[in-house]
Amino acid sequence: MSQQMFDEATSAPDIIAQQLHNNAARCEDIASQLRSQPPRTIMMIGRGTSDHAGVFAKYLFEVGCGIPVVAAAPSVAGVYKRTLNLEGCLAICISQSGQSPDIVQQAQLAKAGGARLLALVNVVDSPLGRLADEVLPLHAGPELAVAATKSYLASLSALCQLCAYWQQDRDLLQALEQLPEALREGQQLPAQLEATQLDGLKHCVVLGRGFGYAIAREVALKLKEVLSIHAEAFSSAEFLHGPVTLAEKQLCIIDLQIDDEGGPTHQEQMQGIAARGAQLIRMHVPVAPHPRLQPLVLMQRFYLDIERAARQLGLDPDSPPGLKKVTETR
């Protein structure tokens, strides 16, 4: 049996090291333009895993740059054929393939509405790559496993590098130099998610706060894609507004702990949720060089854990049933 998902996930440190080197001058140039003409808002365009990278971008650019970030609704362009007034907006479109019709159409209408289009794309010579005003290549190489791993991590690292250059954040820039080694260390950590915890599990919730919630969306998607577990992601704060009643049914909750400004509040909230009867599986990695990069190391560990669990449960993580690599929605 092939091990595409495993091989692609474990290749992330080398890919990101190359990406950070190759994109440095390009990031600096784009960042200089953004400092010269700051956008009034940022619109994130993407589907699936790329959309989840956009959630990470929302926290990254709002916290790091003070600029509001909104998520595009591709159906506004694809179904309702509506062009928005996006003068002064930076549209960041994230795509592995750069060819999903609804994403390309959304990007076209964003430009037609006045937005400047930046594409984070793995396939540079793609419809999206050719359309964009600026391209930030992911340099992830071919991704054959249906469940994306290295392209998601490469998207997050590219976003972090752009933000660091934009804000001239020396601490984050220096930490990015250490990121590949931190990812390698994350690969060597003990597994935090075991097949025995997931065997027979039908439903679960994934909770994080801030940047932890940003990656919770991707964790939940992979649980659905790879293990066919119905998983939903919430901010731990939002979970208290109604859904917390599910905890009393001994709900399984995957708790993503990030050691940043939101960490203490998240821990306090998780203690209260556990007291209601929820069964917690805690995921935390102590090896990140910067709080903004800790989610990447945590995702690196998670990808290996879920791949291993799938095989132990008799599933093929490389080709989940009913899924294709490129989903062509309109």
From TrEMBL:
<dbReference type="Pfam" id="PF01380">
    <property type="entry name" value="SIS"/>
</dbReference>
<dbReference type="InterPro" id="IPR046348">
    <property type="entry name" value="SIS_dom_sf"/>
</dbReference>
<dbReference type="InterPro" id="IPR035466">
    <property type="entry name" value="GlmS/AgaS_SIS"/>
</dbReference>
<dbReference type="InterPro" id="IPR035490">
    <property type="entry name" value="GlmS/FrlB_SIS"/>
</dbReference>
<dbReference type="GO" id="GO:0097367">
    <property type="term" value="F:carbohydrate derivative binding"/>
</dbReference>
<feature type="domain" description="SIS">
    <location>
        <begin position="193"/>
        <end position="315"/>
    </location>
</feature>
<dbReference type="GO" id="GO:1901135">
    <property type="term" value="P:carbohydrate derivative metabolic process"/>
</dbReference>
<protein>
    <submittedName>
        <fullName>SIS domain-containing protein</fullName>
    </submittedName>
</protein>
<dbReference type="InterPro" id="IPR001347">
    <property type="entry name" value="SIS_dom"/>
</dbReference>
<keyword id="KW-0677">Repeat</keyword>
<feature type="domain" description="SIS">
    <location>
        <begin position="30"/>
        <end position="178"/>
    </location>
</feature>
